Amino acid sequence: MVNKWRSVLLSGIFLLLAPIYVLVAARIDPHQATSVPLTEENKTLVVPPCTNANPNGQWIGSGIKFALPKGIKAKKIADIDYQEYLVHVSKDVKPLELWWGALVSAPLTTQKLMQTSIRSQERSIQDSTKRERGFDSQGQDSQGNFWRVFDVPGVALAKYEGVPEQARRAYDTIIDSSCLDRP
Predict the structure, then answer these.
(1) In what order do the strands lie in the sheet with 179-180?
(2) Does 72 map to a domain?
(3) 164-177 burial by CB neighbour count: b if 16+ within 10 A, else e?
(4) 64 pairs with which residues across the strands?
(5) I want to staple 65 with a disulfide (CB 3.0 to 4.6 A). Which of 61, 70, 153, 163 is the partner?
């Protein structure tokens, strides 16, 4: 995968500030791992500016906001350098984690999930001016469960992993509601 923002190599993470292209070779079992081809219309996820209207619930977050539908329970956790919400659709399903803070990012988690998936894809996250802000990665594991990492480094992170289809749809609705509070 060619990526002008970051490249995760064996020893760590490298943030690339200029449009530099890195080719990374990896050994992949061709019978297990597949990559979902991206079409022109879904190569990027454009996050629009926020409006005040959310008739279906409440907005949470700062920098990037997410709409929580009415009836969804969220537990707020905060410390001096981050804020997190754990969103549950049911007691027996892993939560959607919503994070905000200057040090928030999950490139190693994303790399691990992509390497162990039977299907995965990654697309860039852009604001309405087409400025790249981060990455939206998602996939399915060998047990048929789903994961997603919506990562805008230093601003916000939304992630879930190991969830069934019904939870995936509910969590994706929340992630796809994202908007930029501060462009």
Answers:
(1) 57-62, 64-69, 179-180
(2) yes
(3) beebbebbbebbeb
(4) 62, 180
(5) 61
